[in-house]
Amino acid sequence: MSKTIILSNRLPLQISIENDKLDVTPSVGGLATGLKSFHKDGDSVWVGWPGLTEEEIPEDLKEDVQKKAKEENCVAVHLTSAEIDGFYYGFSNRTVWPLFHYFMEYTESDEEHWQIYKQVNQKYADKILELYKDGDVIWVHDYQLLLVPNMIREQEPEAVIGFFNHIPFPSYEVFRTLPWRDEVLKGVLGADLIGFHTYDYERHFLSSVSRILRHQVDFNEITLPDRIVKVDSFPMGIDYRKFEQAALDHFEKTSETKSELQRRLDHHLDATPDAKLILSIDRLDYTKGIAHRIRAYEYFLDRNPEYIEKVRLVMLAVPSRSNVPQYRRLKREVDELVGRINGKFSTVNWTPIWYFYRSMPFENLIDLYTTCEIALLTPIRDGMNLVAKEYIATRTDKTGVLILSEMAGAAHEMNEALIINPNNFEQVSEALKTAFHMPKEEQMERNKMLQKRLRRYSVEKWAQDFMKALRTTRENRDAFKSI
Ligand code: ADP
Ligand code: F6P
């Protein structure tokens, strides 16, 4: 029986070792949380890295890692610490990530990292080739694996291969600065169908292909000597029912079954009944605009002191990629900003920012989504931003205001949110005031439209659309060959 093989750098499960025993937790990040529902319902096997280096897993536990992975239809690919350094912390997150998010000043060009990136991509491709049987469909994900499609194609010319990029694709003028731009484009072009979250990323990619590789591009089709490659946009959705149901369950809870976090949130509301909670949730990443957001909040409080004790920013930042210097620097900057602003504005009854630097269980995320009246998401660049969608899905009574950066892919589908430019503090400050005073009827009107769209274009629909388009592309390719 044929199957779908999903490949992403990180598996949806994160393995750690506690007291000589394996512990499994869900991975954080849009790709893992989004694709998990597709994987759960379908006949697929998911290949990826389980989150520990080869050296960190004792010999006698290696088999158990594979067993744990197998329980969830996953196959673990083990990477050494040198591979993780060069491939993951190196080329993926010090070259491609900053470049594709327009942080050119952070982008490094390190030949050794590039060589390791190639080796690790080959390692992933080899694992896929081991598992591959005629008739299988291969779906490769994201910027860590740009070379894999062509590595598979070289060995299995007839394979059906899809590729989806979960981060922005930059404009040609930015992409062209990459020393290995030709190899990267050729790597991706091994796929039959290449998907992006937005039409803009799709156009940028096509423009780079036509200008760098000089291939013929007609609308969204690229003609290679032996086949046609199709490029399209598929904005990723969320598992809407899961978030909606979790919110409904949350409201059913009695005071005894409530989480500790929820009890604290409730207490806060009792203590200052008219204070509104402003939520922000992200991985601690410089692309997410966390430092800008805190500065914009300071700007808001400085110029509008009447909101002191009337609002509170609840900021959850999940540790991420802390071996990369910019992430460590950002951590220090955020710690210092939070300390400074809390020191500057706090009163005996009130702290302006509640800052959590950790991952949280799903239940606590739902507590935050359902309790905070305003969500403030201000990425400087973001491929999609699923948090924005999850916030809206949990607002089952349709109240709540989403303030969202125009730089997030999600903004293209969420016009009813208050859309802002994160670099414009005055605009962010005005949006906070508008959100604070927005009548319930208007909130409900806006969220009704947003929810309708998110419910319809769920993650299941996203995956189905991609798979359907992949099959059609393949049929057209076979027809093209027979001409
Ligand atoms: P990215 O993929 O860049 O991390 P997204 O906003 O698209 O950004 O996705 C983040 C995902 O991670 C969301 O699905 C969100 O629910 C999940 N997430 C964020 N913070 C936490 C956390 N503290 N604990 C668990 N999951 C989290
Ligand atoms: O969305 C981009 C992305 O890199 C995804 O591939 C991943 O789900 C998420 O960010 C988290 O990144 P990492 O795997 O580096 O923790």
TrEMBL record:
UniProt entry keywords in alphabetical sequence: Glycosyltransferase, Transferase
Listed under catalytic activity are: D-glucose 6-phosphate + UDP-alpha-D-glucose = alpha,alpha-trehalose 6-phosphate + UDP + H(+)
- Pathway it acts in? Glycan biosynthesis; trehalose biosynthesis
Record bears the keyword Glycosyltransferase: yes
Query: EC?
Result: 2.4.1.15
Superkingdom to which the source organism belongs: Bacteria
GO biological process terms, semicolon-separated: trehalose biosynthetic process
Stated family: Belongs to the glycosyltransferase 20 family.
What does the annotation say about its assembly with partners?
Homotetramer.
Its name, as the record gives it, is: Alpha,alpha-trehalose-phosphate synthase
State start and end of the fragment within the whole protein.
1 to 483 of 737
